[in-house]
Design goal:
By secondary structure, the protein is of the alpha/beta class. It is built from 12 helices and 8 strands. It has one domain: TIM Barrel (Alpha-Beta Barrel), CATH 3.20.20.70. Helix content is 42%, strand content 15%. The structure holds phosphoenolpyruvate.
């Protein structure tokens, strides 16, 4: 059965010391608590090894926010999937809309990143989602389907089964504007239908599809109650245990 997951995306926030403190704080807050979802923190590259040392990898799991589209070599400033895995991280966010919009990451580049992540036993948390103009012109399904097709549909069913999806309408990220519960469910059901057509019912049913976009303590319960919403990818509210914990406890 698919897992419920709440993953935090720290983005470019927190010094190393602040990040270690936040991870420690979250680990302590969750220790001994029975939660009904996997909890992941996705941190900047330089935090990974140090954060890994202060979490137990079960109560709190570790992920990166990106990895390179090349395996190794003369790519100054890049960090490979193998390097990410060597820190103890088990997850990697790929295709975040900020990477697509500000760093020119195309579907073809992301396809390479997904492949390298899987080869290095990292679970991709693969982000998809439409911009406001696409939603307003009713093109959201078409856009999301294309994003999935161009980066993921060359995977075998076995490999696709290792991927987590995150639907993040771009107009809801960091804006305080959340997709309504009905909009989220409608898109998640469409995504699951798309997966079913490609890989069959078992793979579609077993894929965790997270919602992301201004998810917080006030709206998480309603969003997560939808049958096709399996948790959240959380930006701003993941930067403090006080705001992240209630989202985890929404399950
Ligand atoms: C994100 O960046 O993945 C995100 C969902 O951000 P926020 O929760 O701040 O909207």
């Amino acid at each position: 059965m698919r897992k419920n997951i709440v993953a935090g995306n720290w983005k470019m926030n927190k010094t190393l010391q602040e990040g270690i403190e936040l991870a420690k704080d979250l680990q302590t807050a969750l220790s001994g608590k029975k939660v009904k979802c996997d909890v992941i923190v996705c941190t900047p590259f330089i935090h990974l090894a140090s954060v890994n040392a202060v979490i137990d990898g079960q109560t709190v799991k570790l992920g990166a926010e990106n990895c390179a589209d090349k395996a190794s070599g003369a790519y100054t400033g890049e960090v490979s999937a193998a390097m990410v895995a060597s820190t103890g991280a088990k997850y990697v966010i790929l295709g975040h809309s900020e990477r697509r919009a500000y760093y020119g990451e195309t579907g073809a580049i992301l396809k390479e990143k997904v492949k390298l992540a899987l080869e290095n036993q990292l679970t991709p948390i693969f982000c998809i989602g439409e911009v406001l103009a696409e939603r307003e012109s009713g093109k959201q399904n078409e856009v999301v389907k294309k994003q999935i097709e161009e980066s993921l549909f060359d995977l075998s069913a076995e490999d696709f089964g290792k991927v987590v999806l995150a639907y993040e309408p771009v107009w809801a990220i960091g804006t305080g504007k959340t997709a309504s519960s009905a909009q989220a469910q409608e898109m998640h059901a469409f995504i699951r239908q798309t997966l079913k057509a490609q890989y069959g019912a078992a793979v579609a049913d077993n894929t965790s599809i997270l919602y992301g976009g201004s998810c917080n303590a006030a709206n998480a319960k309603e969003l997560f109650a939808n049958p096709d919403v399996d948790g959240g990818l959380i930006g701003g509210a993941a930067l403090k245990t006080d705001t992240f914990l209630p989202i985890i406890e929404a399950f």
